[in-house]
Amino acid sequence: MFEFKKDIWGRSTVAEAGLLADATLAELATGLVAGTQVATQFGWRDVAAVAVGDLVLTFDGGMQTVAAVHRQILVTGGELAPADTWPLFVPAEALGNRDDMILMPTQSVMIEADAAEEVFGDPFAMIPALALEGFRGIVRVPPAEQIELITLAFAQDEIIFANTGALMFCPKSNDIFDAGLSVYSTLSLEAARALVAVMELDGLGEIAMQTPYQVAA
Fold first, then answer.
1. Angstrom distance (rounded) from CA 90 to CA 99
2. CA–CA distance from 14 to each of 35, 83, 87, 126 (Å)?
């Protein structure tokens, strides 16, 4: 079982004896790996350096204020971690990302595809990152011995830009009451894999995206 501990700042949680226990899957779904670059009012910045009150560029709402930042450190066991819990290595340009990046398998990713519009009536679809395994060179890799995950939360659910053009889901803050339903929903893994398979057959070229605003480096 996982044992959770606060770090010396009282802010991080350390998960010991494994990478992804069933009890923590939901908590890890929106965590971005430290080192991932996000667009802020200060330019592109490591997500680990983002603080409450900072402005982050979102897909639908422009610059939005970060309402909460949740940090978690996972002690994974490295290559000894179960293979089905390994993170995903995303090579540069695979998802519109300028640089290589690492994604947790449960992170929700928004993609743009003609196949999504044909099936769902919307060219944008949100899928679990795991469904992208094998697509455009995206592969599972052994985790680092420790992984720091950062979840940015906003006043409402948001999609943010990562490493220039990749689109990642971030949740609304639990500290903000909002009875409304989220405008974003993630496809099941089965449906997402079927969509990615069609995208591969179509030789998808339009998945690479650009931010709608010029962001300083």
1. 9
2. 18, 20, 17, 28
* pLDDT band at residue 153 under the 50/70/90 scheme: very high
As a whole number of angstroms, the distance between CA 81 and CA 93 comes to 28
Q: Residue 138 corresponds to which tokens in the numbers above? A: 């995206």
pLDDT tens per residue, range 89-146: 999 999 999 999 999 998 999 999 888 888 888 899 999 999 999 999 999 999 999 9
Phi-psi region of 155 (alpha: psi -120 to 50; beta: other; left: phi over 0): alpha
Nearest to 40 by CA among 144, 152, 125: 152
Residue 117: both structure tokens together: 């519009």
- Sequence-ordered strand ranges (E) for the chain: 4-6, 12-15, 32-33, 37-40, 43-46, 55-58, 62-65, 68-75, 88-90, 101-103, 108-112, 124-128, 139-140, 146-153, 158-162, 166-170
Q: What is the mean pLDDT of residues 73-78?
A: 86
pTM for this predicted structure:
0.79
Distance CA(204)–CA(80), nearest Å, equals: 35
